[in-house]
Amino acid sequence: MKEILTVTNLRKEYKVGEVTIPVLNGISFSLYEGEFVIVLGPSGSGKSTMLNMVGGIDSPTGGDIIYDNKNIGTASEKDMTTYRSNAIGFVFQFYNLLQNLTARENIELAANLSKDHLDVTELLEKIGMSEHAGHFPAQMSGGQQQRIAIARAIAKNPSLLLCDEPTGALDSTTGLQVIRLLKDFNKAYKKTIVIITHNAAMGDIADRVFYIKDGLLEKVVENKNPKEPEDIEW
Amino acid sequence: MNKIIINKSLRSIWRNKKSYFSGIFVLVIGLGMFIGMFSGYLVYMESVRLYHLETNYADVFASVRAMPLDSVDRLTRIDGVAESQGILKHDTNARLAGFDDLIGVRLIGIDENRPLTINQFSYTGESIREGNDILVSSAFYNAHGLHIGDTIRLLIGGQYENFTIRGTVLHPEYLFVPNVGGGVADDSLNTVGFVQVNVVETVANMQGAVNNVRLVLDESVTFEAIEPYLIDAMERYGMINMVSRYHHGSYMAIIQQSTTFSMMAILFPSMFLTIAIGMLYVTLKRLITMERTEIGTLKAMGFSGRYIVSGYLLQGTLAAIISFLLALVFGWFVGGAFYNLIAEFWDLAWLPFVLDTTIIIAGFFIALGVSLFGVIMGAKSSLGVQPAEAMREAPPSANSAGSKFNGIFSRLLLNTGGKLAIRSMQRNKRRVLITVVSIALVFTLMNTFFTMGQFMSDITDDAFLKLQVSDGTITLNRFESRDVLLRDIGQMQGVLEVETVLAIPVELENNGVTRTVAVSGVAANATLFNIFDNNGSQLWTDSGGIILSRFFADELGVTVGESISVYNANLRTHVYVEVTQLVEAAGGMGAYMEISQLSALFSSEPVANMLMINVEEGYLPIIFDSLADAANISGFSDNERAHAFARINADMNNAIFNIINLVSVIICFAIIYNISNIALGEKQREYATLRVLGFQANAVTEINTFEYVIMLILGTILGIIFSYFNIPSIGTMFSFEQSIISVGLSLVPTAMTFVGVAVSVAVSCFLTGRQIRKFNLVDVLKER
Q: Which of B29-33, B164-168, B515-519 has the highest mean pLDDT?
């Protein structure tokens, strides 16, 4: 598989007054085209921090994040935005849909950022939300909002979809539907998807599982035969 | 209320200090202006009332050709006349050493055997002891840097005599320097001169008689009721005119000023208070809404709504107290400064400026009311829901208006970012309304002042460059043959053009409504004295009859083609003259006739009492000098100099207006910036999401700016509508009865106002944009 992103010795420290708090202590890995990655680890281990830096919404204290021969870790604010615009799709635990836009407009908003975007109507159909296209987020359930958020993330056809606990705020049935959706996208569009979760069972559906602990990548487990979401115990 | 709630409230204030104090800022401005300026207005009115009471200010002012003193005394025999007083006045000229220009002096004779009991005067310095002692106006005294003991040379009986300045005089009839020579009164060129009565008797050639009468009426008697009896008693002495105190120039001017003052004290603070109410409401409501989840938690823990709201009431009360205290300080300075500025104009025994207790108390309750209103409205939405619901973010409401926009406007004109801005406005209608109304009110305020500034400049320039365009004006103290004047002055070396004007005070009457006005008699083919209307069209007196300003016509209830009664003591009877034209709000005397026709009412031959001359360069002082000794001339005016002096006054007014406008721009900025800060707090998650999606900071800033551009446009439209109605009404407040200022919405001031408001919106958007760029995306988005 083609390597699309390389992380080398990624470090992050936060300074609170005179106290320095290390969050990431040197993490290195690569992501490959079309793979489905699950990131597991306890709270405070540095999973979200790592994802934020890979996604270009935070800057590392040290180390490199190389995408398309450019180091995102040291990029300017403008280049980081361009990187997010072209390469990254984000899915958040609490959806972060724009409350003043309808479901369709939320997706269109992202699609408009890219010349190579996906068809919005088709996306709405695929996520089963065509009938809700004109609804505002306040008129939708959590699961519906997350489906729109996923469609929005993928609408601009990014290389990498980063999901920070996308099922964290959902019940198990809805969570399963969301993961199913992500898995389908992964297969249909050959997009690399990285999901952060606390649910260890989800490791079984991934191509690779990253275990993070105390700011270090403790181990990477490759899954030769990933299961389907419906086959795992939630 | 326990200590924990108090601590929580105080920390909440500190955490949101920027929003909290910027809300307070606008309230302080509005409240401070209200307390300070209204107090100033009350002190002003009380000063005038007390001064008039203490000086026994006259109820009736009459001028006659000559009335024996014992006849004046006998006026008290008329029922309703409580006191009478005769005064001998005469206008003459004077010279000061080291000062080239001729000075106009209105001499008032003081008789120590008959002290002035009506319109009593006071003085600083020394009393008049010798025959050649004089007291002068303080403005004149200060303008020349004079000292007690300095000498002024008065023209007495055709010769200059030295008089010793003993001090300055304070007299209720001369709150401002009398305009002896015509044009605008220049402090350095005009003064009153209080001298022993025999001096005035000599110069006026009048012994044992007076030419002015002052009366105090019984409290139960009105001027209108007693006027016919007074005319009957005085017309045999050649009554020239008679007015009640309410139509006397000195009284009218000071009351006019009080109207302006009251407008400044009530109207403009009201605008700021309205804005402040909206601002503080939005601020406090936002601060409480931000703590919605905490309110939910406290409710879940079992605290009562009353208990929870007590903390917020504390915040509101603190806001009120802080605003009130700061407003007292601000009001003290702004009110005091404004009061002193107004008081500068008038020579009057002013009371010291103090803040009025009633206004202070009213100010406190306004502050408290405004603050608690914001708190209660803010707390209402959070307290009224179940704890579980309160602990979640408030769901945004979808509304039908959104789909309407979705249908036409947005599909045609707006991209998704535009929709985002529009929908954000729809969701926050109250905030938008407050912003738009605030912009509109500031716009109205600025537009009004810009318009007034421009109008005052225009009217000043028009008076000298368009209406009365001669190089100089010569004022006579009696009527002279028009033909003789034209011949004699026209023959003088250096005189290029000469025209005569006859200015006569008359009483116009129609259907029982009377107005005193000076009618200007102007030649049909006059080129130095012109009459223009608001539209710049010139009017000529050749159509006969009387030309009235629209203001007077409306007051008298007459229109073109109808006749009105003209009365003057010289006429001895009412003469009816047809109104032939109306002048739309010209700044001027308000009534015009052809000079021969006006003369014919009073005299068998054409007469005049004013000359307008154009001269060769450098000849004006020579001509004035050669005429200085003439007994029938009361004053000269170099119109270029008078214009320059008037410009200084107009520029001073403009400077004040511009300072007010600058403050308005700052306040407008503070309002917009504060509201946009509050809004940004609500929208930062959305904006951060857009940034994460890949929108450049500029693109997100544009969405935010777009929202404020729409509000700017709406505020401007509303502001133009407000201005349309406000400017003419304020124009009327500024106007004098005899020279109405009619002014409406005009392009340049409106454009300048728009620039001012747009700059404040642009700066606010720029600073908000900087905040958007500085968003910590991780922190913003990790919040639930």
A: B164-168
Residues B729-751 pLDDT 10s: 666 655 544 444 556 788 889 99
A78 to chain B, any CB pair closer than 8 A? The answer is yes
Mention every residue, 6+ apart, whose C-beta is less than 8 A from residue A169. Answer: A93, A94, A95, A142, A146
Interchain pair B686, A113: CB under 8 A: no
Distance CA A48, CA A69 (A): 24
Give the Å distances, CA to CA, from B634 to B159, B190, B227, B522.
Answer: 15, 11, 29, 20
- The predicted structure's pLDDT at residue B755: 94
- Helix, strand, coil percent content, chain B, rounded in steps of 5: 55, 20, 25
Look at A61-70, B141-150, B629-638 and tell me which has the smallest mean pLDDT: B629-638
Tell me, yes or no, if A100 comes closer than 8 A to chain B by beta carbon: yes
A98 touches chain B (CB under 8 A): yes
- By the CB < 8 Å criterion, does A208 face chain B? no
Looking at chain B from residue 242 to 301, which residues have their Cβ under 8 Å from any Cβ of chain A? Answer: none
Strand bridging mode A192-197 / B99-110: unpaired
Amino acid at A74: T
Q: How far is CA B636 from CA A159, B214, B262, B270, B499, in A?
A: 91, 28, 36, 46, 15
- Chain B positions touching A105 (Cβ under 8 A) are 416, 419
Residues 6+ away with beta carbon under 8 Å from B200: B88, B89, B90, B107, B108, B109, B206
Q: What is the pTM of this model?
A: 0.69
Question: Nearest residue on chain A to B397, judged by CA atoms?
Answer: A138
> Model confidence over B153-185: pLDDT tens digits?
998 877 889 999 999 988 888 776 555 545 456
Mutate to test the interface with A, among B693, B696, B700, B776 (most CBs of A within 10 A): B693
Q: Kindly determine whether residue B686 and residue A100, on different chains, have CB atoms separated by under 8 Å.
A: yes
Is B416:A101 a contact under the CB 8 Å cutoff? yes
CB A60 within 8 A of CB A53: yes
How does pLDDT run across B1-29, given as a tens digit for each residue?
A: 566 667 777 777 787 777 777 778 878 88
Task: Determine the average pLDDT of the residues in B266-282.
Answer: 76
Q: Note the ipTM here.
A: 0.73
A152 touches chain B (CB under 8 A): yes
Q: What is the pLDDT of residues B413-462, one digit of tens each?
A: 556 677 778 888 887 887 888 889 889 988 998 898 888 888 888 878 88
Q: What local confidence, expressed as pLDDT, does residue B504 receive?
A: 83
Q: Is B402 on the interface with A (CB under 8 A)?
A: yes
- The span from the first CA to the last CA of chain A, in angstroms, equals 30
Q: Residue B15 has which token pair?
A: 């955490």
Q: How far is CA A202 from CA A18, A172, A180, B546, in A?
A: 39, 12, 11, 100
Backbone angles phi, psi at B436, to 5 degrees: -65, -45
For residues B299 and B304, what is the distance between their CA atoms, to the nearest angstrom?
7
What is the token pair recorded at B624? Answer: 């004035």
In angstroms, the separation between the Cα of residue A230 and the nearest Cα of chain B is 29
Tokens describing residue B590: 């308000």
Q: Do B695 and A81 touch (CB under 8 A)?
A: yes
Phi, psi for residue B776 in degrees, rounded to 5: -90, 100
C-alpha span between B575 and B519 (Å, rounded): 14
Q: Nearest CA to CA, how far is A177 from chain B (Å)?
A: 22
Percent of all residues in chain B with a pLDDT value above 90, rounded to a whole number: 27
Q: B415 vs A81: CB contact, 8 Å cut-off?
A: no
Q: Which residues pair with B122 in a beta bridge?
A: B170
Q: Does B423 touch chain A (CB under 8 A)?
A: yes
Give CA B693 to chain center in angstroms: 56
Which residues does chain B have within 8 Å of residue A77's beta carbon, measured at their own beta carbons? 697, 773
